Amino acid sequence: MDPEFWHERWARGEIGFHQDDFNAHMQAFTGRLELHPGAHIFVPLCGKSLDLLWLWRQGYRVSGVEISLQAVTDFFSENRLAASASRIPGGQLFQAAGLEVYCADFFATQFPGMAAIDAVYDRAALVALPPAMRQAYAQRLVGLLDPGVRILLVTLDYPQHEMSGPPFAVTLDEVEGLFGETCLVEPLHREDCLAREPRFRDKGLTQLTEHVLLLERKP
User: How large a percentage of the chain has pLDDT more than 70?
Assistant: First the structure.
């Protein structure tokens, strides 16, 4: 799955993963990140998620990274945010008063000038990646964090043979395998969500479970 896959998805408007409202799990469990006002939250593979806006409005400094320029410019224009744009190695940085999005490859960019990360929020990054890319994602993400930094992670699990991703199925065992050596992993919430996701039922899914987990970088 190379960058061109995502550029084409955005160009064709195939963005069913985008939510038109703030994520309920994020609102319910952000407190478990134990952040102080002004803390810095990092949101990888963020698309044009409205969750960036919600976190920013809570008084946090928010940084996202997204490979699609269309997604980034749509985010700022649709939310009527005047952003300044500057070049960085490998991409661009869009900034608007405590809210910034790097338009770049998460796996290759060094994120120049980004503040130390106090927490991570991942609703649609890990599940967007096929199995072959997940280990590199986990290593890259954890490598950006100091000990004690927490990750609020939302995943989906379903019979993978019933639907091709993304979003892909990610089991709890796989999360433990990806992050267990470097992070403490605490399940927070489990929910059968197929009834409220008709688009997945229409694709043939017979089961869909959403998991919310809290990870904490080990010393």
Answer: 94
Number of Cβ within a 10 Å radius of residue 153:
25
User: What's the full length of the chain, in residues?
Assistant: 219
User: Helical H runs in 30-157?
Assistant: 51-57, 69-78, 131-143
- Tell me phi and psi for residue 179, to 5 degrees: -115, -10
pTM of model > 0.90 = yes
- Domain ranges in the chain are 3-10+21-217
* Distance (Å, whole) CA 118 – CA 35: 7
Left (φ > 0), alpha (ψ -120 to 50) or beta: where does 209 sit?
A: beta
Please provide the CATH number assigned to the domain covering 3-10+21-217: 3.40.50.150
User: Can you give the C-alpha Rg of the chain in angstroms?
Assistant: 17
Q: Which two tokens mark 216?
A: 């904490």
